């Protein structure tokens, strides 16, 4: 009930989910799905302590992908990026938790896998920037925009996490 009220409030006033309720959008890209990395990636977010609120397999339309990557529309790699992202299904997810936007980006590694440290997802599982297996929102504002692009409200599930007291003091 509290979750429902918070969701309505956050949507009406476009406020960020903050603190332990911060949310981010993470997507396993088509290369990650083809390469059977979905389970490994979900495992990392689960074990870190984040809370899953949305998950689906999507064959993304060109219009969704263009909206998602709108800021990059003038880059020379834009058309290739849209082709890459529509070349197969994507696993779209919403994860919630304290500082999840920043922490997820650190778990992903740098945009270019060559600059990503071992231990990060891109550092461990890929080699080229154009096949970097995973997306994560780069700010709370981007997360809100991306979550509302990829998910309808009713696809996000509020549920009580029984391990919450073992994750937060
Ligand atoms: P990010 O995914 O780390 O946030 P962005 O700069 O937002 O990085 O770029 C979005 C995606 O565009 C990257 O994840 C990568 O798939 C692709 N991309 C970025 N730079 C290049 C490039 O120089 N060549 C090809 N693809 C690129
Ligand atoms: Mg980005």
UniProtKB/TrEMBL annotation:
Subcellular location: Cell projection
Recorded superkingdom: Eukaryota
GO BP term, example: GTP biosynthetic process
Binding, ATP: 29, 77, 105, 111, 122, 132
Catalytic residue list: 135 (pros-phosphohistidine intermediate)
Signal peptide bounds: 1-18
GO molecular function: ATP binding; nucleoside diphosphate kinase activity
Protein EC: 2.7.4.6
Pfam families the UniProt entry points to: NDK (PF00334)
Gene3D superfamilies: Nucleoside diphosphate kinase-like domain
SMART domains: NDK
Database matches in CDD domains: NDPk_I (cd04413)
Keywords: ATP-binding, Cell projection, Kinase, Nucleotide-binding, Signal, Transferase
Reactions catalysed: a ribonucleoside 5'-diphosphate + ATP = a ribonucleoside 5'-triphosphate + ADP; a 2'-deoxyribonucleoside 5'-diphosphate + ATP = a 2'-deoxyribonucleoside 5'-triphosphate + ADP
HAMAP family documented for this protein: NDP_kinase
Listed name of the protein: Nucleoside diphosphate kinase
Protein species of origin: Conger conger
